Task: inverse folding
């Protein structure tokens, strides 16, 4: 009898790989075939937990294995492009840890390769699959907040300094992907500042402002040198405002029925009549489902049906374009950098199987 | 018998004036002679609480009263220059609510006038007199934090939209004055972005980055349209880090013995060895003394002794220069603006009496 | 022209008296005539703030003054009975700081005296007039919580050790008055334990359980030796539950749509099917009005109209009966003590004027 | 070659069993031989994760297996005695989930059996092995807190109603074991009250006071019907006080240098001079090591060396005696119940191997 489950390979069993492995193992529609890593110690660790899953220190073994339909890549950023391209060329669907690749050019090549071969290319923007972000998106789409005025996020901790990416590629990437997902509008320019406090390392602290054609503005503050962990996002609208604290165990999202009211214009040019509304606060129940479980289900579903992923190649490209523009602005102490294209209507990247 | 107390007049009995009045009334070295305001209702309110203090709707009455030695100004920003200049010309010492004046040029004229007349000119940067900020300054001066890496502050609430100033003149002014006070270094450039969400009003949301010649960077986030009040400042150093939350009733300052350690340089260019220290946290006891009480004592003392105030004219000027530069940067979507002068050694602005 | 405002006298200008004075001064229907205190320093302090209000160190002066209609008593507990009785005998309405008197017997005598003379006797159970407690009562009355299961409160801080009362007369009195106010049922018995950690002082820590005929139970934990201030109350119902944190600046009350569900009885005696509901949380907007302002308005209104106060003599009596029973239980290490009467229908204590 | 690792069997793979299994699997000195459970689905789940570990639905298989040296029991409370006794009789060392058995009598029989056979009998009082509780014990032993005045704990959540034990056997058991561990003194009496809000189920809410011969008092509040999870313990001493919040991710323990000071006795009997100290707060760094890992290491070590466990049979017995006394007091609405024995010097329950 044929195994109709999607055969998976995972490359990289370091920080994030074990989470992917755990979720593919427990997904009933997937079958984890093999794990590749250069470190024998890590492979031994995976074998102890999952004796039935093959291990290898040669990535090619995954590419050649016909029982592997798709590969999840959880390696350092500088290797993403090469590994993903090889997987696509071997006919495998690909899920890549964020960011998709170190430059927009390389991302475009991956998108082209995936399109040509009609393969799923998905980037692991995990936050898009959290129940909290999905709830925020639902509230925005239902226009509960009114016109969106701002998205303002702080994401900091005493974090891992990474050797090949700076803090915006590590942390701001989450917010940029969330902004793409919950807002109906693309940013048109970016101003960013960043600091490097340890000689010879990438920037460890940055502040990014994204400008939109509308009144909306987005700001993201990231820091690897914070004494405490902060994961807090404010979303302000003309009708209501959200405070989203990802560290809260249950009440992650608080919706405030607060705002301002505008009265009739006054004759006195120095006066404008702004009133304040201070209403109730409401914390909707948020499911405790693990985001990565939802994401793995979605990836398996896209592989099977050919439907375009929520966090597909084009979405990953837009995120990279914004990060690249922010990096250029950082180099120029905040000088604004225009963003290239604008959001076009999203169409499926290939026909369904 | 001569009354040796400093005779005070207060102009403006709106939002902040009553706090000044209350503190001058209870200061044993001051005697509050009169309150001026254009609104009879406000004067009636002051009379109900302080029947012994004269009231007037003519500011000139304060200027002409020989028993008034000094005037505290708590009126809208656009009137500060004119009222302060008139007070100085009438030979009165002056305490002005922040910001000192709407432009650096006007501040310079006030400083000149005060210098020429050997009068005290002080600006009401209240936060400099809070026990919490004084404790932070003490820790910085004692080099408890090591090299200062950053100051990062968020100051937001569903705030009063003001007609004559935007949010940075209302809220960021606090942080800029604190930065001036606790750091040993002047910023050299500023990049700022800001947004206006209500047509016809000033910017209600802004993010400011101050650059220094050293590794240090300062960032200030201010917002009049936040659903909740936030007053949180992080100060990061090479040895320790502070989280200062002004809304905490008692543990306003937490000092974290956390940070990173650098190992010997590695041969592998891709690797640098950064370790993490996670030590104890310590919250020093902070006095509950009201900042305005300390500030009023300091003003009275400066008036009497001629010593230069902590928040004197030059300090107020530097703050205004930074706010002006930030405003220009906001108009250019974050383009960096160089700051004019550099900190020079502070010398007494006049001989002591 | 006759002054139709209620003429007030206040005795005791120590910790709480100034708050009463401030609220009577600002109430437009009251006129504060005089303040009595034995301490000349305190009287001088009151004169500095309110030069128009007479002061005296003889309580009799208040009793004899025909322009004084009512007296507010803010003196140590051991003096309450004597001062209140004298005021009533002098024909004055009376507002007494909590607890009304040191024993139920003495309270009954005050009630009798007030009834006989058709005077208002009100006790200053301030918490009943807080917007938060009034909102809880409203939710309970509207049966939003379903059947009430419990009231569980913690009230602690590094508090003032009092010489003439123990911690339950100082702190638990608040909760007992709130329980009386928000529940429809009287407790029938009490078990309490208490500890004295400083030789020669009253109990500084206590835990009280109030039993009801229904499923409802109330527990109050009070402590003068807590390193941090806690003011937290849980009210659990069959449908919803409330967490009331009086130290929260704005979201004092959180209503949780959480609870359990009972399934059909199972055949297996060892099994019962209890499910859990985890719904939204809702924090109703709570007015920021000062409780004492509402209370003073209510007292003035009762004096004028003769309507029975929310916190009248009978309500104060019931609170004292519970405190006395709790004290007896504490002396017996938790042995339950039955409570005397049961709640009878509340009727106006006198005809309206 | 002989395997010198301790051979383990685990019975019960429900809520807690998987945690035991995971820790025995990863302990290098243990070898998990087999898991027993009556539910085939649970055994299948364990096989998926640990294909190398045998499974069985017959407990006897564990008893008969000579490669099994010790058995961990994670089954419902009502089965603890029978399963533990069988294991001891089969010559196996035993680790039993708390509470050790449903009555003190049964616990004594297990202790006798283990003593006679010189086998390790340990109860899984997990909290004793948390870094936070160990830090509190260290501070108490070093007399950092001075004389201990109180232990006051709240442990509540919307919890699992259990069919065979009430809330004190489920939750208060943790605090009673902690109190035993950190205090140098045994309680002499207990008063407790409890409530049952769901017909036909055990008490779901209880408050327990433990009396000591010294000034010390302990209070434990537990609740299965709380809308939010609370795990907060106050430990007050004459010199310092601790707030221990187990839900805090990092700063679990805060040590307050706060308290009272006693002045010379005053002549006035109504006056005693109590002053307040308000010093710094200090949060010692707490290791993030999992408690169960430490506990499993300790059990393995006791099995190998014969040393008496921290949470051995006698310690478990004392906890049960207190829970039984509390249950009797609950039945009598708080009437105090004397506790049988007193702490005797702890001696090893058997000679070391």
Result:
């Amino acid at each position: 009898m044929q195994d109709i489950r999607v055969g998976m390979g995972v490359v990289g069993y370091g920080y994030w790989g074990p989470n992917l492995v755990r979720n593919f193992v427990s997904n009933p529609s997937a079958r984890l075939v093999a794990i590749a890593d250069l470190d024998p110690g890590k492979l031994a660790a995976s074998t102890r937990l999952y004796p039935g899953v093959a291990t290898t220190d040669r990535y090619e073994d995954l590419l050649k294995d016909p029982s592997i339909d798709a590969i999840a890549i959880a390696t350092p950023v500088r290797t993403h492009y090469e590994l993903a391209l090889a997987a696509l060329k071997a006919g495998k669907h690909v899920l890549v840890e964020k960011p998709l690749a170190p430059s927009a050019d390389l991302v475009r090549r991956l998108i082209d390769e995936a399109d040509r071969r009609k393969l799923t290319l998905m980037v692991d923007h995990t936050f898009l699959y959290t129940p909290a972000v999905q709830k925020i998106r639902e509230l925005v789409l239902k226009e509960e907040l009114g016109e969106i005025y701002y998205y303002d996020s702080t994401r900091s901790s005493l974090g891992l300094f990474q050797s090949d990416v700076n803090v915006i590629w590590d942390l701001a990437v989450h917010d940029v992907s969330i902004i793409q997902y919950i807002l109906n509008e693309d940013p048109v320019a970016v101003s960013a500042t960043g600091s490097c406090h340890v000689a010879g390392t990438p920037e460890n602290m940055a502040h990014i402002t994204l400008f939109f054609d509308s009144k909306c503005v987005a700001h993201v503050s990231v820091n690897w040198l914070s004494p405490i962990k902060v994961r807090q996002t404010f979303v302000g609208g003309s009708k209501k405002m959200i405070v989203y604290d990802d560290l809260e165990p249950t009440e992650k999202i608080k919706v405030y029925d607060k705002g301002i009211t505008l009265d009739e214009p006054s004759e006195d040019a120095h006066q404008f009549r702004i009133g304040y509304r201070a209403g109730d606060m409401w914390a909707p129940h948020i499911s405790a489902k693990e985001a990565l479980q939802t994401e793995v289900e979605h990836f398996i579903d896209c592989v099977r049906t050919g439907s375009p992923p929520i966090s597909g190649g084009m979405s990953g490209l837009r995120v990279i374009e914004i990060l690249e523009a922010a990096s250029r602005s950082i180099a120029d102490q905040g000088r604004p950098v225009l963003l290239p294209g604008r959001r076009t209507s999203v169409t499926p990247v290939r026909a369904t199987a």
Summary: Chain A has a mean pLDDT of 91. The domain at 128-282 of chain A is CATH 3.30.360.10 (Dihydrodipicolinate Reductase; domain 2). The radius of gyration of chain A is 22 Å. Chain A has two domains: 6-127+291-309, 128-282.
